[in-house]
Specification:
Elements: H1 36-45, H2 57-69, H3 77-85, E1 106-109, E2 112-114, H4 117-127, E3 134-138, H5 144-151, E4 155-160, H6 163-175, E5 181-185, E6 198-203, H7 212-216, E7 218-229, E8 233-241, E9 244-247, E10 251-253
Parallel strand pairs: 3-4, 3-6, 4-5, 6-7
Antiparallel strand pairs: 1-2, 7-8, 8-9, 8-10
Helix pairs in contact: 2-3
The protein binds S-adenosyl-L-homocysteine.
Length: 279
């Protein structure tokens, strides 16, 4: 299965806006649809052969924020600041480092990808994280999204099903000094009940349906940002309000599939509950 993650076109000035308000989300509909595969192909086809590293990472990062993030309508100052400060090149494998600030996802091994920078910023803005919030991430991958959540002031709990990715991300996060990020190797379908409730839950792999445990682990006012679906996915924001769970968004996206194994308590429809291979 191709490994996919949300990405949007690279054009500048394409009028894409995003906001945590649901009514603004359709404005990115045409944008947040593209395919990681294209990004991976572009990454692999880019000139340069062996890639020694990214030249002038600070300048590349500033340009990334200006063109890809602020340029597409991300306005939350804390998110913009986090995207300016977290060294994305430290989270990508050496052979992809020259493309660390490019406008597409990159392979991180084990058939997985680090999401496109814009998608990381969008999900962080939709999660509306405040300093001191407890945030659960499902799908640690490289650890980059976790670092961004930490940089906006959250205490982060992140779960990754592929053990070498979990260990690798933990090592990078420790080395870079992100002490308030807790990494667990395990199945994120169940969330992290011992650390709940969470002010926000950010899911970076797409399950066929919303995992009930993740909704149950939301604090009052808490937000769950999650791509849902198989071939066709939409990015939803579920909010725990005093009157119940409100679903506030529905933007088309493509993410890698969430591995759905045993232990889903029958909450996945027949046919979708078969274990998927992690490559
Ligand atoms: N957030 C990551 C990118 C995630 S890619 C980053 O910033 O780099 C999606 C990740 O979800 C992959 O690493 C994949 O192994 C993981 N994943 C898939 N199914 C999962 C599950 N059931 N529980 C936890 N992690 C899962």
């Amino acid at each position: 299965m191709p490994q996919l993650a949300g990405r949007v076109p690279a054009e500048r000035g394409d009028g894409i806006l995003c906001s945590r308000m649901a009514q603004d989300l359709p404005r990115v509909v045409a944008a947040v649809v593209a395919v990681t595969l294209l990004g991976c192909i572009a990454a692999c086809a880019a000139p340069g052969g062996a890639r020694p590293g990214v030249a002038a990472p600070d300048a590349a990062r500033a340009r990334m924020v200006e063109e890809q993030i602020a340029g597409r309508g991300i306005t939350d100052p804390a998110v913009l600041q986090a995207m300016r400060t977290v060294p994305r090149h430290e989270f990508v494998p050496p052979q992809s480092r020259a493309d660390a600030y490019a406008d597409w996802p990159l392979p991180i091994g084990h058939g997985q990808t680090i999401s496109q920078p814009y998608v990381v910023a969008l999900m962080t803005e939709l999660a509306a994280v405040k300093p001191g919030d407890r945030v659960l991430e499902i799908g640690t991958g490289s650890g980059y999204q976790a670092a961004i959540l930490s940089a906006v002031g959250a205490e982060v709990y992140t779960v990754e099903i592929v053990e070498p990715l979990a260990r690798g991300a933990e090592a990078v996060l420790r080395r870079l000094g992100y002490g308030r990020v807790h990494v667990r190797h395990g199945d994120g379908w169940r969330g992290w009940p011992e650390a709940a409730p969470f002010n926000a839950v950010v899911v970076t792999a797409a399950p066929p349906v919303v995992p009930p445990a993740l909704v149950a682990q939301l604090a009052p006012g808490g937000r769950l940002v999650i791509p849902v679906g198989e071939e066709e996915q939409e990015l939803r924001v579920l909010v725990r309000t005093p009157s119940g769970i409100e679903t506030r968004a529905g933007v088309p996206v493509r993410f890698v599939p969430m591995v759905v194994g045993p232990g889903t308590g029958g909450s996945v429809p027949p046919g979708n509950g078969r274990p998927q291979e992690v490559r």
